[in-house]
Structure formats: structure tokens, C-alpha cells
Design goal:
single chain; alpha/beta; Rossmann fold
Length: 267
């Protein structure tokens, strides 16, 4: 089966792609990466988070990894991921435009798997894969639609966060039929980034199982979402202040060191 993966060029997406590639080796995979999510200026605290999630790894750590031998247990950076799929990997921010749509369609996907992709797919793109588009949303739907769902769940005092695997049925955001969910107990001692990264092991396993069911023609039950739920955008400086006042942190240095070590394991 041809599977096209859509993700963002950040370290959380890179982690998720590592999980997916190890579970989808029997399929022909292609990858398209967005380079951003949203276009509005970010508050300083989110600019620092962006540096951790994107700039530090993409501009410093991944290039350093590219000149070293890769160990079996080591996570792959984007360049190594591209090599793993025979270089069927490219940046694509205009998937709905004529040229971008043609580039996407050339991969002839039977199924599309999306994680953190920064572009809303419109009807023409959604009609390309025969088995549709499955998105892994890092929040419980319909309660936490939109951006940084885990941040809002922590700010709202939830005892659990989770992911929702759902079909993208149209160009609306996070409204499609639900295939599966995961749950993660909130850890008051850990940061927002730790919680986000911790979601993807179980969430990607749900994606892999869904792809297997489709490839084996077993059918994939999906249920409409119940209720309108809530939509969230990027937090404001006031929201970020409240987050800090509650004792939360966006990231911890140890989170970054631990993750970097998984990409830069010593031979």
C-alpha cells in the first residue's frame, strides 16, 4: 500500500515519524513536511519554544547527526528519514495549490497519515487518497480542537490528556469521525513539551494499527464526534502567564537533553 505521511518540520513530528516508519516498513512511504504552523507573530515564550522544537534540532543537531554513523536504537533526523524512504521526502507548504497538489498526487497514496501538518487540506487534496486521510490530533476531541491542545488541557486542570485519531472529512478543523483515542496521566512535575512528546508512542501505534486494518481490508470503524466541543488557538501572553502561575513550564532543559541524546547517541 502507498502511504503518504504529512508532518511538520519540528522535533515532535520527527519523533512521531520515527515511530511510524518502524511500524509501516512493509508499505511504500512518502513524506511531505510543512515548515510552519500558523502565520501570526508569537509571544516571546512561544518563540523560545519554537527555537527548541524547530531551530535547535533542524539547524544544529540534525546536521551534526548527518555526519555520524546511525546506531540501530538511535532516532533518525529528517535527512536520515528521507534516506529511509528512498528520498521520497520534500517540504510542501502549498499542498492545495496547483503545483503542490500535483506533487502530492504523484505519490499516488492509498492512505494519508497526518501529524502536526501545518496546512489545512482542502477538498481536492482530500480526494486524492482512496482510503482517506487520518490525522493524529494531540488532544481529546471535540473538547480540545485547534492548536496546542495539550497546553490548554494542562491550563484547564485536566487530570489526563490524550490523542484522537480521526478522519479528515472536509476542510473544517478537527471535526472528523473518530477512529481511536489514547490517554496519558498528567504529571505535575513535568513540562508541556514532555507531555506532548509522551503522547506519540501510543498515538502512532493507533495509526499503525489503523493502516494495517485498511491494508488487510478489515474495515476501520469510526464514530461521529459528539457535541460541538471547543476550539483553541495559540495562547496569548496572558494565557502563558497563567500557565506559569499554576506552576507549569513550557519546557525543561532536561527534556531537551534527553531527546537530543536519542538522536545523537554515541557510537
Amino acid at each position: 500500500m502507498n502511504i503518504t505521511l504529512l508532518a511538520n518540520k519540528d522535533v515532535a513530528s520527527c519523533l512521531a515519524l520515527n515511530y511510524l516508519l518502524r511500524g509501516l516498513e512493509q508499505h511504500q512511504l512518502s513524506i511531505f513536511l510543512s515548515s510552519r504552523v500558523g502565520s501570526k507573530p508569537l509571544p516571546p515564550a512561544l518563540q523560545q519554544l519554537k527555537f527548541i522544537e524547530q531551530d535547535l534540532f533542524n539547524q544544529l543537531l540534525f546536521p551534526a547527526q548527518a555526519v555520524r554513523d546511525i546506531l540501530p536504537e538511535q532516532l533518525l533526523g529528517f535527512e536520515q528519514l528521507a534516506q529511509a524512504v528512498d528520498h521520497r521526502c520534500a517540504e510542501l507548504n502549498d499542498i492545495n495549490g496547483e503545483a503542490g497538489l500535483a506533487q502530492f498526487a504523484q505519490t499516488e497514496p492509498d492512505l494519508v497519515l497526518s501529524i502536526r501538518y501545518g496546512v489545512i487540506l482542502k477538498e481536492a487534496a482530500l480526494s486524492v487518497p482512496g482510503h482517506g486521510v487520518l490525522n493524529l490530533h494531540s488532544g481529546r476531541l471535540p473538547d480540545y480542537k485547534g492548536v496546542m491542545a495539550s497546553f490548554w488541557a494542562l491550563l484547564n486542570g485536566e487530570s489526563e490528556i490524550g490523542t484522537t485519531l480521526h478522519f479528515i472529512d472536509d476542510a473544517s478543523i478537527d471535526t472528523g469521525r473518530v477512529v481511536a483515542t489514547t490517554r496519558l496521566k498528567v504529571d505535575r512535575q513535568s513540562s508541556y513539551l514532555w507531555h506532548v512528546l509522551s503522547l506519540y508512542s501510543d498515538g502512532c501505534e493507533k495509526m499503525i494499527r489503523a493502516a494495517k486494518a485498511i491494508s488487510q481490508q478489515q474495515g476501520l470503524p469510526a464514530s461521529p464526534q459528539q457535541g460541538e466541543g471547543n476550539y483553541y488557538s495559540f495562547p496569548s501572553e496572558e494565557d502563558l502567564d497563567r500557565f506559569g502561575e499554576q506552576g507549569w513550564r513550557l519546557w525543561d532543559p532536561q527534556d531537551v537533553l534527553d531527546l537530543a541524546q536519542r538522536f545523537l547517541a554515541s557510537p
